[in-house]
Amino acid sequence: MTFIWTEISFLNAWWERSHPVKQKALKRLVKEGRLEITTGGWVMPDEACTHIYALVDQFIEGHVWVKANLGVAPKIGWSIDPFGHGATVPYLLDKSGLEGAIIQRIHYAWKEWFAQHQIEEFLWMPTFDSETPTLLVHNQPFDIYSIKSTCGPHPAICISFDFRKIPGEYSEYTAKHEVITENNLQSKSKTLMEEYDRIGSLTTHNVVLVPLGDDFRYEYGIEFDAQYVNYMKMFNYINKHTELFDAEVSFGTPLDYFKAVKERLDSFPTLRGDFFVYSDIFSEGKPAYWSGYYTTRPYIKIVARQFEHHLRTAEILFTLASNFLRQSNKHMFESSERKLEKFYEQLITARRNLGLFQHHDAITGTSKASVMYDYGTKIFTSLYHCIRLQEAALTTLMIPDSNLHTQSVLQSELEWETYGKLPRKLLVSTIDKKKVIVFNSLAQKRTEVLTLRSNTSNVRVYDTSNKKYVPSQVTPNIQAHEDAKFSISDTNFDIVFVATVGPFSAVTYNLEEYTNHSQRCVVFCNNCTEDKSDPEKPNNFVIKKMMPGDIQLENKIMKLLVDRNTGFLRQVYRKDIRKKNIIDIQFGAYQSAQRHSGAYLFMPDYESPEKDVLSQYSKGNVMDEGNVVIVSGPVSTEITTIYLPFLVHTLRIFNVDDPALSHGIFIENIVDFENPPKNRETELFMRIQTNIQNGETPEFYTDQNGFQYQRRVKMDKLGIEANYYPITTMAWIQDDITRLTLITNHAQGAAAYEPGRLEVMLDRRTLYDDFRGVGEGVVDNKPTVFSNWLLLEPITSDRPKRETVSRKHKKKIKRNKPTKYELPSRTAEYLSRTLSYPVNAYVVDTSEVGDIEVKEQQGFLEEFPPGVHVLALRTITDEVLEQFPSSSCFMVLQRPGWSCDIEVPMAMPSANFTSKTKFKGLAVQSLSSVSLTGLKTYKNLTGLEEISLKPMEIKTYRIRF
């Protein structure tokens, strides 16, 4: 009898508490081929909501574990439970050295199409690549992976071939239970083969793969015996009576299946695209679309991405700092090195907690509230450890006095208290916290606008590296109250300043006490007062009344027109190209169809109109003028509209001499659904209605896992639930003249259901279960901060005109004219990366150690091509000492692609490595090109200049320092 095991997180849990005798027995089963490790990732990840960094990281963690403990490398992928399949995971499996993959949950219409064309296997090609693929993918032909649905097309028959019989257990399969005896052996064998023959008719090679299992199976020894004994009786009978069956049946593994298929076929069809949105029909007898989980529980989706960023930063700083200390070979650094090594065990746990959350019932939000809370506490624990590691590593790199390396000198400016709460800014005092270290974890120079919370408004910021004062402003800390009044704090202020940091660099900024009223923002507000402890003290800010009429925000590049009644954007005028566009931001909600919309499914109640969710938080359709606040300063200008407590909406533009920041509109939404039953059956969206002509049948583009991009065309005959697609970093609509891109920092659903419209789902509350496995509704909504960039960009005039897809000619054009592969602009890709990986700021706390020396700056890369993204710089665990780091690491590189059809102010960066490319202050002892997860070595290289990547490609290199 043969078995497979896919998720290494659970295998590791068993392994760590098992006797060495059992461990050896397991290794023997693997060596004999009786237990096959399929996929080998830390979990079976979701493929819609996961981001590329976390996907790669959990594959590395799982594959390294498998190789280290079992001595094998996975060969076949097994992904039979994610709710739809994308093209990213097959690409990553191919890059990891796997030969094949098996998928399950795709739209029932696709299942039918594959069956009609006798296709079960295909080569899944990346949409951006035209090279010959190597990964062969098998689609399981029926609805689900249980025995009831795998032996053939008739569940009523297949259920009788499930021989599990546990005393005291009663279910549909125990009711049909019938052991194989001499009396029924022939008839049961014949019935089973008839079902197998029907599966075989769905393909030209006539090889059949039939999984024999289900959720929560084989936990009792008697089930092993029952399944094995009964099936072996039928297998022996079938194999013996070739004159009756002309077939050979045996237990096997997916690897055996692919070998048999390849022996019979030497060519396979190719496929480009993905299998979203997934829809089942077997549960209710009518289509149900699994597009709700793209958005479900956005709070934890956002927290997970921020955890991902902090883990990546911790990995980079640990790798740099530990090897810097090791190579310095100085006795004074021994205690510093030992302190860092203590963090490594926590770093391993953090990797595994991030990997665990990529599970298809975790990041999707499709577990019970108590289970989601457990995930959240794991994430927060590891997030805390990652930030402490960052502080310790940067201390060793930026503080020359090694005696201070074991003390808590650096403090992250952001504090994460507990799951369910929003992060809180550290209050910086210019008395004992005068220095701030800013670290850039990207391998390209960047300019960012940072915000620190201060106890004084008399501050200016000095760049110690470039020896100059940087643009800054003092922004009021405004508290909104439910009586529609605003108070401006007299003790807390936001210091906003412009930081320019090199690739993989840390720069020190000094906060100096200085009175300059021109740095203080002007506040436009009809209902604001300063909350002063001393009434005689003069105001810190100039407060002016709002002028009548619509509102304008302006910088050097654009002018925004904001609706006075709603406080939302209406129009954008690009001054540099003299182009005006309608950009109408709206908020609304779909009424959930009870028991048909839940954690997994999205289904609006079509008998109910869209909900005006803001009306209960405003005075009719006209905003109270006191609910709008404008804050204008030399660095940024913003307008905030408050519908307390449900929504706080902010638009911000920057007066910064930076080609990316000055062209983008930053959008922040703080959403609070309040406690249930308020806002029940509410699916909240932010909608952007424009005058962009993206087709009579609308089309738009979505990213996939922050890695690649997919064109989406509205399915006219289907509802909005079938036209919502997952995004992880961005979506855009365009015509021949203009492109509008919305950039996000987390996974959510997006749609373009009407011409000129782009909308994203923000949050969902459904009181009832949708009967797909959770067993409860989704009512544990948390106050959540949503961050977006909005870009309006011109398309070059020499770009070929876009084919307008009319309903009449839609099919003809799709068949005869291959669609161009669209990419984001350079500006969009850059802003997306900075949103996902913001600079980290750490305050130097001198309250206990006095005034200390801090390096002005520290860079770790020289002449590194800015057109290549360092996805990961991940220390490899020592081969002998399990919880200790080695001097080697995996450097995972990604070369993003950009569109050349968008007029952008940013220069296209080089992706070429040269002889000048190196790690500053670190000697590379050896360098080799390896498979994505590092299990296979391809080529030993002499230096970094030998590295090369094609556009969109991901590669891994092993470095020994």
From TrEMBL:
Record GO terms (molecular function): carbohydrate binding; mannosyl-oligosaccharide 1,3-1,6-alpha-mannosidase activity; metal ion binding
UniProt keyword Hydrolase present: yes
Keyword Disulfide bond: no
The Glycoside hydrolase family 38 central domain, residue ranges: 288-379
Keywords: Glycosidase, Hydrolase, Metal-binding, Zinc
GO terms classed as biological process: mannose metabolic process; N-glycan processing
Cofactor (UniProt): Zn(2+)
Signal sequence bounds: none
Source organism superkingdom: Eukaryota
A Pfam short name: Glyco_hydro_38C
GO CC annotations on file: Golgi membrane
Catalytic activity: N(4)-{beta-D-GlcNAc-(1->2)-alpha-D-Man-(1->3)-[alpha-D-Man-(1->3)-[alpha-D-Man-(1->6)]-alpha-D-Man-(1->6)]-beta-D-Man-(1->4)-beta-D-GlcNAc-(1->4)-beta-D-GlcNAc}-L-asparaginyl-[protein] + 2 H2O = 2 alpha-D-mannopyranose + an N(4)-{beta-D-GlcNAc-(1->2)-alpha-D-Man-(1->3)-[alpha-D-Man-(1->6)]-beta-D-Man-(1->4)-beta-D-GlcNAc-(1->4)-beta-D-GlcNAc}-L-asparaginyl-[protein]
Entry-linked InterPro entries: Gal_mutarotase_sf_dom, Glyco_hydro/deAcase_b/a-brl, Glyco_hydro_38_C, Glyco_hydro_38_cen, Glyco_hydro_38_cen_sf, Glyco_hydro_38_N, Glyco_hydro_38_N_sf, Glyco_hydro_57/38_cen_sf
Record EC number: 3.2.1.-
Co-factor: note: Binds 1 zinc ion per subunit.
Family: Belongs to the glycosyl hydrolase 38 family.
PANTHER family in UniProt: ALPHA-MANNOSIDASE
SUBUNIT field: Homodimer; disulfide-linked.
Entry function: Catalyzes the first committed step in the biosynthesis of complex N-glycans. It controls conversion of high mannose to complex N-glycans; the final hydrolytic step in the N-glycan maturation pathway.
Name this protein carries in UniProt: Alpha-mannosidase
Source organism (scientific name): Leptidea sinapis
